[in-house]
């Protein structure tokens, strides 16, 4: 996701804000989007046919206030009941505002009144290729566990990894996390130290809430691959994308900055001990 750059003032109409959000999600220059036809809705036939040429379409969101999506989608917001709507980019499970070209959501009392998901017309043709697993190992820089959702995280030098469950002493094995324990990708979360250090001040554990901080390895490239943390075998399941939960833990907005940089969700495949300083090897 790459926000468009405006050469003039920010958009002031529903159609212009919608076009800006769509261009941002597609990572295209704003001028490549088709101009809206007279008296046509922002998501009208002109845009739909143009998207169809790329194998994409727009799926309306019936209940935007309760809708969640682990990726960007377009929401219609109003500053107050009865006000003219504007488009924003939403993101995450649960979803929050990732980009607001008009600044509607900077104030209090705004409402989410609808939206669209940009979707592939044929998902099988749109699946991204799997990245190659990293050949050079990284390291575990820090280990954290928290007994339940929202509880302060505690740093430890080593921890027992429990296959199919999580880390001993953490919330995930005992079902006290924000999200359900047991489904694929719920046992272990990781984030790159380099991402944490890109914030000023650096992102702290009680902001990112991940179990392991790693260094010198591309965690995104571990999705779909088995890897080893020391002697413990794991499997990368999906990206650990940000959401409004992580935004609520931080004292600053971090959702947008962590899109596709929030780390990795992984399964633990066998019991063992993970130590600070262990190698994280992607090629096993």
Which H/E pattern describes the elements? HHEEEEEHEEEEEHHEEEHEEE
Percentage of residues in helical conformation: 10-25%
Give the termini distance in whole angstroms.
32 Å
Q: Structural class of the secondary structure composition?
A: alpha+beta
* Helical stretch tally: 6
Largest sheet, in brief, is: 7 strands, mixed, barrel
Radius of gyration: 21 Å
Spatial order of strands in the largest sheet: 6-11-10-14-13-12-16
Average pLDDT over all residues: 93
Shape: elongated
Strand content: 25-35%
| DSSP E strands, number | 16
Low-confidence parts lasting 5 or more residues at pLDDT below 50? none
Question: What topology emerges from the helices and strands here?
Answer:
Layout: H1 14-26, H2 45-52, E1 56-61, E2 69-78, E3 86-92, E4 96-99, E5 111-120, H3 123-126, E6 138-145, E7 154-156, E8 158-162, E9 166-167, E10 188-192, H4 193-197, H5 205-208, E11 212-215, E12 226-229, E13 232-239, H6 244-249, E14 264-268, E15 272-275, E16 279-281
Parallel strand pairs: 10-11
Antiparallel strand pairs: 1-5, 2-3, 2-5, 3-4, 6-7, 6-11, 6-16, 8-9, 8-15, 10-14, 12-13, 12-16, 13-14
């Amino acid at each position: 996701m790459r926000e468009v750059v405006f050469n003039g003032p920010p958009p002031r109409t529903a159609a212009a804000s919608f076009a800006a959000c769509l261009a941002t999600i597609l990572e295209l220059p704003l001028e490549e989007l088709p101009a809206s036809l007279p008296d046509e809705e922002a998501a009208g036939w002109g845009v739909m046919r143009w998207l169809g040429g790329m194998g994409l379409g727009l799926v309306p969101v019936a209940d935007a206030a309760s809708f969640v999506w682990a990726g960007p989608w377009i929401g219609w917001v109003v500053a107050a009941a009865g006000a003219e709507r504007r488009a924003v980019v939403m993101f995450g499970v649960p979803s929050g505002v990732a980009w607001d070209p008009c600044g509607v959501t900077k104030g209090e009392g705004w409402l989410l009144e609808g939206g669209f998901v940009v979707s592939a017309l044929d998902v099988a043709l749109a699946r991204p290729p799997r990245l190659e697993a990293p050949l050079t190992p990284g390291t575990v820089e820090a280990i954290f566990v928290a007994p339940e959702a929202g509880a302060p995280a505690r740093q430890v030098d080593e921890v027992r990894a429990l296959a199919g469950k999580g880390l001993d002493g953490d919330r995930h094995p005992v079902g006290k996390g924000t999200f359900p324990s047991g489904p694929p990708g719920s046992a272990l979360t990781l984030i790159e130290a380099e991402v944490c250090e890109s914030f000023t001040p650096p992102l702290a554990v009680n902001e990112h809430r991940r179990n392991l901080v790693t260094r010198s390895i591309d965690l995104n490239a571990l999705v779909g691959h088995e890897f080893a943390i020391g002697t413990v075998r794991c499997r990368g399941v999906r990206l650990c994308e940000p959401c409004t939960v992580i935004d609520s833990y931080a004292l600053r907005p971090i959702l947008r900055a962590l899109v596709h940089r929030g780390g990795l969700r992984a399964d633990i495949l066998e019991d063992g001990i993970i130590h600070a300083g262990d190698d994280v090897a992607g090629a096993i």
